[in-house]
Automatic annotation (TrEMBL):
Any Pfam family matching the protein: TetR_C_43
Transmembrane segments: none
Stated name of the protein: Helix-turn-helix domain-containing protein
HTH tetR-type domain segment(s): 35-94
DNA-binding region extent: 57-76
Cross-referenced InterPro entries: Homeodomain-like_sf (IPR009057), HTH-type_TetR-like_transc_reg (IPR050109), HTH_TetR (IPR001647), Tet_transcr_reg_TetR-rel_C_sf (IPR036271), TetR_SbtR-like_C (IPR049445)
Keyword tags: DNA-binding, Transcription, Transcription regulation
Amino acid sequence: MIPSARRPQRGRTAIAAPPGTADPESTTQLRTDARRNLEQVLRAAREVFGELGYDAPMEEIARRAGVGVGTIYRRFSGKESLVQRIMITETARLTGEAVAALAEEPDAWAALNRYLRRAVASGAGRLFPALSGRVPVTEEMRDGRTALNEAVCLLVDRAKDEGYLRDDVSDADISLLLSCLLPPPGLPKAQRLTVAARYLEVVLDGLRADRPSPLPGRPFTQDELDTLFLRGGPR
């Protein structure tokens, strides 16, 4: 937006703005546009990386975001830094979902159900395996993962304490379930979400404490989960 010229009042000398001084309204608009572009890029990157994996072209992200590729590279130095930001943002979002579910639902089972349903609907289960191990892990990424682990652990412990969740399931099992609910990538997005939601209902039924059949093997551990999500898979 080009600010309109201001006429000097009679009897007064017009004072020109110092060189390089931005019009406040114009600057605010630029900040708003930049923030909107960033949100569009992050949203598109989540979808593209979740569907196509780390090797997805940046041009596809730009196309879905409705911006030029140059817009992405002005904000991120490359695909690596974009993926790191996606991992940090999504981990924080899942942590917020877990904390809010515990605070707002009437019991821990309802909270666990809500958390898993929203996490599955967001496509997080497909996103994390697609990106894990492809970029250096920053301290912010590790801190975010720790916060998410703690939030999910609290959900699981309370669901067990209240007698809803079976004892032979760990908090790491719950997190890994999100990555196991992966319908074939060739399906349309709406159908993938529907299939994942159907599978989740079967899984939730099997998580209840009143299910008599014991699970084979041992529960997954947080160390194993961190190996998958932070260090690129089992050694």
